[in-house]
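An example makes the point: we print one protein in full, the chain in one-letter code, the fold tokenised, without further comment:
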Amino acid sequence: MGFLLIGLAGGTVKGRESVAATLVDQGGRSLGAYAYGISAEGRLDRSFSRDLARVNNLTKALDDLPKLKRTTPEAGLVITHLAGEDEVAIMRLAGGVIWHLVTPVSASIAIEIGDLLVTPRSGGIGHLYDPLEALSIELVRQQAAKPKKFARA
């Protein structure tokens, strides 16, 4: 399995943290979680200067990915609190996937084709996947994207 990079957007701080905790706890500790930009009151800080700092913090964290991939047993990383399109663009450039919690949906991050809709609730709700269902989908996608090796006859 390759390294899996997941960014969480939308929902609430508590909901995103619940999804990340489920992935870390139930994923056999093969996923790590990274959270930043949360105020003491448990809210995302959305001032312009804080947005710039958030992008810088995310960029620094992702710059360390090659080292992280070599030195840790983690098979992936969950970025818990994406707050804007700049952060999403950085995640996508780094090969990451975006999951959207839709209660409430993010007003600043567009849902794109291929993004998953996720709920912290076990068993999912309607068209929303629970964290482990979404993880399973991403792992299958990752496997399907690998080049196939064919034996010569």
